[in-house]
What we know:
The complex is a heterodimer.
Chain A (H helix, E strand, L loop, with lengths): L2 E4 L5 H9 L7 E8 L15 E6 L3 H16 L4 E7 L1 E3 L4 E9 L2 H18 L2 E7 L2 E7 L4 H8 L8
Chain B lengths: L1 E6 L1 H7 L3 E5 L7 H9 L7 H4 L4 E4 L2 E3 L10 E5 L6
Parallel strand pairs in B: 1-5
Antiparallel strand pairs in B: 1-2, 3-4, 3-5
Amino acid sequence: MSVSVQREAFDVGAEIAALTRDNHGIGAVASFVGLVRDMNAGHGVDAMVSAMTLEHYPGMTESALQEIVAEARSRWDLLGTRVVHRYGRLEPGEAIVLVIAAASHRGEAFAACEFIMDYLKTRAPFWKKEEGAGGTECARWVDARESDETAAVRWKNSNHP
Amino acid sequence: MTIKLLYFAKLREALGTGGEEIALPAGVADVAALRKHLAARGDAWQELTRSQSLRAALNQRMVGPEAAIADGDEVAFFPPVTGG
Lengths: 161, 84
């Protein structure tokens, strides 16, 4: 399955190996891993992130990610794709999301990988709640970023409005 | 008609519920009308018309306010997404 939404950690090396196994037309594999950081907006101890919990919309997360991958495959000549997105409580240093795009050459692989991430950031129904120094008592919902919208919009073109 | 409603994240916390099933009166046939219908409950429910950024999904696809609702549909309301 090209898309997985799960609690469990993933193994990037194993995922790439699975994608490229017996698929020797692939000359380029571009991958992205998103991680939980220990700092966010704000200053000093207020910015500290001790844990993050990801909520999601079961059913829609899978279909939204599949649609994004399908869009990428329609725009670029890809030989393989894989998206894994975790949910649940994660701590700094843990991986949240994996995007892999494989193609004959690196142009398509790089572009598709970035496209999938940019679209995922604005269309996949996940919501992050951060715990700061005060733990779950002072948890706060992360606000969506305008820069993510801007990143997604730049992929619109005359062929794909 | 009867529809299933789902609320997520900060909205879910504000409303105090993750979802419900309701029967809609005649005349509430699109997402915009549904938001007004729910906001009429008052208190935190007014967020459904007050918030400019709230998103809606109909049968698990993002839609705009003009989207028509049918019997048995699933409608979800939520803040802008923050995955990845």
